[in-house]
Amino acid sequence: MTLSNCIELKAPYLIxxxxxxxxxxxxxxxxxxQWRRGLVAGQVRFEGNDLDMGVPDLTIAEAVAAGVKxxxxxxxxxxxxxxxxxxxVLVEAANAGLDVVSGLHRRLAEYPELKAAADKAGTSLIxxxxxxxxxxxxxxxxxxxxxxLMVGTDCAVGKKYSALALADCLKTRGGKATFRATGQTxxxxxxxxxxxxxIIADFxxxxxxxxxxxxxPDHWDVIEGQGxxxxxxxxxxxxxxxxxxxxxxxxxxxxxxxxxxxxxxxxKVPSVEDCMDLNLKCxxxxxxxITCVGISVNTSQxxxxxxxxxxxxxxxxxxxxxxxxxxxxxDAIADRLDxx
Amino acid sequence: MTLSNCIELKAPYLIxxxxxxxxxxxxxxxxxxQWRRGLVAGQVRFEGNDLDMGVPDLTIAEAVAAGVKxxxxxxxxxxxxxxxxxxxVLVEAANAGLDVVSGLHRRLAEYPELKAAADKAGTSLIxxxxxxxxxxxxxxxxxxxxxxLMVGTDCAVGKKYSALALADCLKTRGGKATFRATGQTxxxxxxxxxxxxxIIADFxxxxxxxxxxxxxPDHWDVIEGQGxxxxxxxxxxxxxxxxxxxxxxxxxxxxxxxxxxxxxxxxKVPSVEDCMDLNLKCxxxxxxxITCVGISVNTSQxxxxxxxxxxxxxxxxxxxxxxxxxxxxxDAIADRLDxx
Lengths: 340, 340
Description:
2 copies of one chain form a homodimer. Chain A has 12 helices and 13 strands.
């Protein structure tokens, strides 16, 4: 198994946000800068845009001079299409030899001027929402190296953040670790990965196997999860990722202020314990030694005074490290991984 | 929810097998004739082909005169491509106003002569391996009518056969029932359905919701399953189908002579009880009243004298009707459905 059919981005990056003034819509760009500041040379924003992501403003020419290899559209997909003023900047970048990277619904090659520019300059148009071809069928065959998968009580409860924080924590402690991205924003941050939610259902477990290949015995792949076994819209995706990842360890990610499942009217968010139990039961199919090493809680919506008491109570109930990565860091979970 | 974006085939059919002489490769055609004899006007096979499916040999002209609406390639996908001699028959059929239906990997429209003929005659080229567009995301919202889903201890253990036999049994007893196809051969037999295994992972549960829509309170959708929660290659597909189907009842399908999971080297086939328990546990997410109404066993590979004793022992152990639909029919399972 190889990573040959993963998406791969070339650094350093120029982050393009155009006239996007909302930090929420610019979360991809902000995420890349937060987690991969060293790979970002600068930003491109239109005149009068006050949203400053804290990196130098560069023209395309300045970016080229600074050695930039890719321009990344740092805006989360909303409408899916982009305006002419955006396209003209991307065309200029392609003409100047930069790869263009997008997470938008509409493919970059569907903009004829952009396609022509990229063809002429020999640069790549990379749509991170498009799955690679020739993905294999999953086999369940055991791989070398170790894997920890983020699982969630619902979608969007902090799996990506937890995985990034845990991977950084392991590396800071001197361990070998790689963040493995499974969603668009994660791929932009990691510079590689597989957009699991764009893959034909039959190939998801095989894709998950391919993108965390054989590795050193003491290396951890820290895998961003997707969906939740308790979210009826996406649980099949979560299960395929669980089986294909063959995790030695899971971290349950949870938002205590979420009451109902995001995409399923009337469906309740499960308890952390139920979520853990079902993931361990299902995950044992491809890794009988699977274990839960901790709970990562997004407490940002709780009153400040209630955050640590909540985590302490959950730790007492489950007997597991319960952290908010922003409040506590991930050392308590990393300690558990060290002894696997 | 509507069935508007399902595949739909127009009867009567002409089944085309060309020079295919193996009943195994012609299983699609044979299946259509076995289960939908009334919809089949005839067969087209090349001169010298001794494989007779038991329906009249017709030329395209004779088929048109007999009112045939579709020519179906009755051969299971093997290489994926077809030869010039096959294409010329299909072109003749399209020219004569027939829809052309295929389960092959390569799309019919990729054969230029065939596409031109269909465009000119205004007929359809229907690839049953191609998923419809604009599928919804699953919501878990409850639908009216009742549903029974075939689940399996592995792939290819008799789910399609069991669903077809059970739907026929319910109708013979005067009930309202519809076989819902989820795979290519099933779609060919049913004349409609969704090729679940060709759908982007995020949309599988939504597709399953869409293709068994609201119905009369006493109507049963009898849903062909896919894969197995215990097959690490395809379990995510099975889970999406389970959640989207919201089954009131499941039937566990099993092949007692299968020792290891088909696509996963070294993985053991689970017990019928474990398979039932996990499906009931996961299925309760979208239907808390889910129950198991029986076990359908493919005993064809067992010694004849051991078949009924095996079924009796399994019934004693599980307390459920255990049948081989070929040996026993499906009445014992239908009896259970009648009281739900």
